[in-house]
Amino acid sequence: MQLVLMLLCLGFGPYLYAEDQPGEVPSFIQEDLKYYPFEVEEDRFVVGELSVGQLHILNTYRDDAKMLFARHLGILSINGTKDDIPLLQLIIDQKILRKDEVQKWQALGILFGDVLAREFNMTWVRYEDKYGLSKALRFRRTDNFMFPVIMFSKRVGYNDKIDVQAIYNKLADDVAAFKAWELKPKLPNGLKPS
């Protein structure tokens, strides 16, 4: 402890880290943080067009979801517009699906994704990162993505209430923020102000 105090008095404070003092957690003042070697993890991902197989899977899930509407509610017209939002809510509120029917929840997520794609001019893409391969919606040619396939199944898994209109409204706000960002003027170095 005396060595630590002596080093602090001599100005070596910013260079003492947890590995220097076993069992002790270092404490820093604001000035010391600029010397701390924080680890930064970069988000790396690859985006591409959906393969024929992925398109087939999306279409199969869509057909399965539409069958749910036809079989349980007698609804034959699901068209990928905002008009589908109350219908999605109806099938959820009727508790037609069990919690463990993940594939069917994801099929509903795909129908919801079709609404988002049409209303917000987004496209289905293949998105791959360190967690694996996903189907996502991409806003124009930007790095702004939505993952509707799991929007409902994740909420069900966490026992969250699903309010389709509220989810849609939140995503509409996100898209408005994407658009506002695009309209910001670029700085001389090509970056946009935050």
Walk me through this protein's architecture.
With 194 residues, this protein is of the alpha+beta class. It has a single domain, classed as Four Helix Bundle (Hemerythrin (Met), subunit A) (Up-down Bundle), CATH 1.20.120.1090. It is 46% helix and 11% strand. The protein is built from seven helices and four strands. The chain has helices at 2-9, 30-33, 52-73, 84-93, 102-120, 151-157, 164-183, and strands at residues 45-48, 122-129, 132-139, 145-146. A hairpin with a 2-residue loop joins strand 2 and strand 3. Helix 3 (52-73) packs across helix 5 and helix 5 packs across helix 6 (151-157). The longest helix has 22 residues, at 52-73.
The number of distinct helices, counting runs of at least 4 residues, comes to 7
The domain count comes to 1
Order of helices and strands: HHEHHHEEEHH
Helix residue percentage: 40-55%
What is the gist of this entry?
This protein has 194 residues and is of the alpha+beta class.
